[in-house]
Amino acid sequence: MKRAAPGTLLLLSTGCRARYAVFDTASPEAHRIANLHWLMLGICVAVAVAVLALLGIALVRRDRGRYSDGSARRVRAVAAGAAVSAFLLLVLLVASVLAGREITAPGGPQALEVRITGHQWWWEISYPGSSPSEEVVTANEIHVPVHRPVRFLLSSGDVIHSFWVPRLNGKKDLIPGRLTRHIFQVDRPGVFRGQCAEFCGYQHAHMGFVVVAEDPARFDAWLAAQRGIAAEPAGPSAVHGRTVFLSSPCVLCHTIRGIGAFGHKAPDLTHVASRTMIAAATLHNTPGNLAGWILDAPRVKPGTRMPPNTLAANDLLDLVAYLESLR
Amino acid sequence: MSRTMDVSQLPDAVLDSRSLVWWGTIIMTVIETTVFAIAVAAFFYLRMIAHEWPPGRAGAPSLLAPTVNLLILLVSVVPAIALDRASLKRDIAGVRRMLWANLAFGTAFLVGRVFEFKALHCWWNASAYASIQWTILGLHTTNLLTSLIETAIVLAWFLAKKPEDHHFLDARLDAVFWYFVVVTWIPLYVVVFLTPRLR
Amino acid sequence: MSAPAERLREETAGLPSGTDRERENLAYTWRKREGILGLLSSVDHKTLGARYIVTAFAFFTLGGLEALAMRIQLARPENRFLNPDLYDQVFTMHGTTMMFFFAVPVMLGIGLYFVPLMIGTRNVPFPRLNAAGYWFYLIGGLYLYASFFANGGPDAGWFSYTPLSASEFSSGHRLDAWVQIINFTEVSALIVASSLIVCIFKQRAPGMSLNRIPLFVWAMLVTMIMIVFSMPAVIFAAGSLNSDRSLGTHFFNPAEGGDHLLWQHTFWFFGHPEVYIIFLPALGMISCILSAFCRREIFGYNAMVLSLVSTGFLAFGLWVHHMFATGLPQMGQSFFTAASMMIAIPTGVQLFCWIATIWGARPRLEPPVLYVLGFFLNFLIGGMTGLMLASVPLDLQLHDTFFVVAHLHYVLIGGSLFPLLGALYYWFPKMTGRMLDRRLGILSFAVLMVGFNLTFFPMHELGMKGMPRRVYTYLPDRGWNGMNLAASIGAGLIAIAILLYVANVVKSLRRGRKAEANPWRAETLEWAAQSPPPAYNFVRLPIVASRSPLWQEELGYVTGMPTDKRELLVTHALDAAPSHREEVPGPSGIPFTFSVILCLALIGSVFSPWWLIIGSLASIPPAIAWYWTEEKP
Prior knowledge:
By secondary structure, chain B is mainly alpha-helical. Chain B contains six helices and one strand, in the order βαααααα.
């Protein structure tokens, strides 16, 4: 039941209780930004209230003497207003620059490096190993160890996307032809939702992902498991499912390592059953959802590149059984 | 008792920078200059991010045709100044001659411009370098063509009809616009043809 | 048309009404042509200005309907009112319509109408060019909407980031339409800008030295100069995207040395000044309204002018704050944070000067003043969220979320639309000769205030809860449902408010109380003309001796201007001493013909490059005719 736990956590954390993701921080970076926000909000609200109060008084007062547009008292008042504004802006500027420095620190040699390539409308995740054969490739679900900086190298395979997990840090764009860097360090275990934050076409709205933070031992175990090739199917249903997979258009786009499927246009499915969600964090990873997605992806995400598939009922069931066995 | 001011004795046409049309022409040249400035900024931006500039296939542009054409352009300032002066003096024959001269030099420069495009040694769709080079040359050529058409139209009037004061102003403005074509070309020549040779 | 001398003297507040003969001659000299030809050939700045305003509000309505469609779609999670393809077109059309076809043109229209009146001249300096500019604008808008109704509307956002907008990811002609309409709108803006800059510098009434120019005219001058320096960037950007899409250039192709950030830099170098182009005229309008209703000059004229100028200047140094998430070097980004915060100072100075003006004046709370008060509240909120977004770390959280949608609408609607609606109410009597209904005016203000805040305030929360922008729907378990529903209800209220305003206009055009020349007892020169002004604006051109001419004893006037020729009085740029008289052309059908041919060339070029070549050649005969015909009365 390893998959159920993160799934439950996810359900709880995104459940009915409304949360301000930007303030419900789980990393020093996001925390720093949240603090900056409160400082700015405080100063801004104070200034706005003061100005509106002055306006209110201005509306009700009645002039006694003559009005002169250069009268000394008013000149001093306006000048004071300008000076106070300038001072407060300087405070905000300094606070902002200092916070900026803290959230972009490179992370040092102990940082875990993760490469992310954005696609329309899913996330390709890879953990470079010490050699190419050690590389782990997965999709839409990122695991990180807690208390260790994670450095993301971001690029795109098509249009500009943006990587954003509000509870962990600000966002960073994925730009084709460029490599951008992003960093955060998660304070405590948990499941954190992310979403694409740069308009990238039809299914920008459903291009989500999930960050699972766990303690180092569990993370290492996960990484080692992901490195392996696809699990051998057990039981006739799953075995038949593998055959269905290999003889369907699936292999044109998807990779399942170890069975000879090397499509590169779509998420790597070698360990698809280990993920809590499918379709870029749009559907929970249940057999029913998986079947519906395979049968008619465009009904769930109109405009998606995955075509609908015509499969006989038992072929579909077997295929789902096979995929659900790929932990 | 209100003040009054009698303006009936004021001139009803002027041939210099007091004219509204003069100001309009200057503003148009400011707009065009800004377009050039943005294009040149884009040129240096692309150069800054390039690994190789110009990229391998193109090589730096050759200098013979562009330099010859630049000289033609610089010499063409002379008839432009003469046109300017003739218009101020309201010398119809002089204006006609200098409009013809302007047209001739402009056409010669336009012909030379074809060789300048060839001197780039690349088509516009070869690379980003090629694209921005063609764009800068193309923008300047548009101004050049506009100036030539304007010269032709003003010349046609001076040949066919009796010019009034504001037509002499138009002839002057034709010369002023030509100064603009020349003055903008000098830095653009440096950018397009000389800077690719810098390392 | 002439009126009895006595009534005229009452109607024209302060200027002599001239003799019957003068008025007849002027009316004849400055007359329009009859019928359809009259419509197509008009070069009167008031006609063109009014056309820009009415056309802009027609586009505003279309943009508003698009907004309503989006809000209906987003009212519930996983709604099926608009599929993603249609939604993407709708949000792109909404932004493109509002920014290019409403906000800038309406300001151009008001400037065209009122600047010549406020400085005491008879028309703008390049009448036929201005006529052509309007036709470019109208035809561009018709082309955009024809594309949209043919399911060919642009769908990559009003900002069209590459590579989404490049041919690989946007095949077909949708983005070609977007690229082309940039040409139309920016040409018309540049034409109006050139005319008004020359007009303001060279056609002011004698005695209107630089330090006597009304603050609204200063605001328009700064705005027009900003147009001159910012439009070229979008010309370059759109032209480059166009050539990448149709000619195979590589400006935005990293594989051949191009760069996607080049698009963002060139677009936003235009895009940021663009919003100040929309904002600055509104600041000028507020000064007009407050000085009239507080019955005193705006406090701190020099500070106000310096603030306008420095805002215009600083606006060019902010553009990278739209690109904080693209991974640019931090030190460079901090410069733009500083600039983006610094620009708050001159705006703040203006707010303080207005408060100083209001202080003790007990202005009558007529609708224009109510809209100004609405501006104060809404723009303050928008300005504050702007400061928050100027900070790089905070922006990295809030960028591209509904927080930005909230911010931009607070500053654009609060900062520009509210003053605009107030100014139209204020100037309606001058333009139409009738007063608007006061009760309806107050009601439409109140509904707008409530509706606007109900729509956009919740969006701050949505952004902070993680909702990105430009999404056609959202999952039901994100916690965004309630705020979205509230925003959609608010949008309905905004629609009602606008309907009420329009109803007020329609009703008052027919049955509004007749307006005299200066119903508000305001001080600027437009109130010295009749309501509405005749084609020639003033029988005798005024001379001014102060900043508030109509509050002086009696206006001086110019004699010796011919009434049988269309002549403008040209004055010197600094001190407005008379320089000379210059004749300008009258009504002509050539600008319309020229515009149609050139527009067809541009639209046709989307389908085949031959159209551009043929069209350019075909536009030469009208250009020659333009020069050849003198259009004398």
